[in-house]
Write a structure and sequence with these properties.
Elements: E1 12-19, E2 25-26, E3 34-36, H1 38-50, E4 55-61, H2 80-91, E5 96-101, E6 115-116, E7 119-120, H3 122-139, E8 143-146, H4 153-163, E9 170-177, H5 184-190, H6 210-222, E10 226-230, H7 236-245, E11 250-254, H8 256-267, H9 273-287, E12 291-294, H10 297-307
Parallel strand pairs: 1-3, 1-4, 1-12, 4-5, 5-8, 8-9, 9-10, 10-11, 11-12
Antiparallel strand pairs: 2-3, 6-7
Helix pairs in contact: 1-2, 2-3, 3-4
Bound molecules: ligand PBG.
């Protein structure tokens, strides 16, 4: 009766990895996660939906042979992501399908933006991101989610979507995405680590809090529908900062490293996996997140259903 915060399956977005081919491969760097075939992806998303999880977000592992310096594969209408969106929306019309907008899985340099003479070129990148977003919208994506952290991309993406008749496609912006070491296992899952340098010229400095509010004001003005903080657990103050400063829904991404730390400690018998999982999620919710992206989505939803 006096509990202030509660979790529900409806709070979660399940991130799903996929690749070309017909085998579902376990991901070594993220125990319990899988690189799905299209058929496996459809089945997994169906199970999530049945548990009450309303949405999934897709991350593709792209064949090395398709990666280029211009990342052109990211807007191929026959590419892996458009085919996956299609398959998911035909099998589960009620599922919300969100896609990641960034170049790193497609870019031979492994960066979220195009690299020219060792520099990330912001505006040229944004033009490619617009093609990518439009191709996802054409395939039926409900939400596109720019994780690239280029400047001005939310406004440009909104304009490009509208121009192509996709006014109803929403934008979930990675508003405050920090240059974090917690992304390591994810880059292992996709083989998408940067070949040179790091992402500090476009992702945020973990030392900065006011800058997150500045990013929020820009994203709001540019037309974001949902604003996100990433990672989640080590950045609870940023989640609450955003919650205080906006009426938009706030999302938080419990990233691969946060997941792996709990999984590994539990595997060694040092932590109670279920309890720490639920505590980590309620903490993120309590800080002010309306929506949580988490690799634990299915496990947590299962527990919540049992508890009812
Ligand atoms: C890249 C992207 C990353 C994640 C989501 N999108 C990694 C990065 O920025 O290097 C990380 C997710 C996770 O660690 O779970 N566009």
């Amino acid at each position: 009766m006096v509990r202030e915060t509660s979790l529900a399956a409806g709070d979660f977005i399940l991130p799903l990895f996929l690749h070309e081919g017909s085998v579902d491969e376990p991901i070594e760097s993220m125990p319990g996660c899988t690189r799905w075939s299209l058929a496996g992806l459809v089945k997994e998303a169906g199970e999530a939906l049945a548990l009450g999880i309303p949405a999934v977000v897709l991350f593709p592992a792209i064949d090395e042979s398709l990666k280029t310096q211009g990342a052109e594969e990211c807007f191929n209408p026959e590419g892996l992501i458009p085919r996956a969106i299609n398959a998911l929306k035909s099998a589960h019309p009620g599922l919300v399908v969100m896609t990641d907008i960034a170049l790193d899985p497609y870019n031979s340099d492994g960066h979220d933006g195009l690299v020219v003479d060792g520099e990330i070129v912001n505006d040229e990148t944004v033009r490619v991101l617009c093609h990518q977003a439009v191709s996802h919208a054409e395939a039926g994506a409900d939400i596109i989610s720019p994780s690239d952290m280029m400047d001005g991309r939310v406004g440009e993406l909104r304009e490009a979507l509208d121009e192509h008749g996709h006014e109803k496609v929403s934008i979930c912006s990675y508003t405050a995405k920090y240059a974090s070491a917690y992304y390591g296992p994810f880059r292992g899952a996709l083989g998408s680590a940067p070949k040179n340098g790091d992402k500090k010229t476009y992702q945020m400095d973990p030392a900065n809090r006011r800058e997150a509010v500045r990013e929020l004001l820009l994203d709001e003005e540019e037309g974001a529908d949902i604003v996100m903080v990433k990672p989640a657990g080590p950045y609870l103050d940023i989640i609450s900062e955003l919650r205080e400063h906006t009426a938009l829904p706030v999302a938080a991404y419990q990233v691969s490293g946060e997941y792996l730390m709990i999984k590994s400690a539990a595997k060694d018998g040092w932590l109670d996996e279920e309890k720490v999982m639920m505590e980590s999620l309620i903490g993120i919710k309590r800080a002010g997140a309306d929506i949580i992206l988490t690799y634990f989505a299915k496990a947590a939803a299962q527990l919540l259903t049992q508890a009812r």
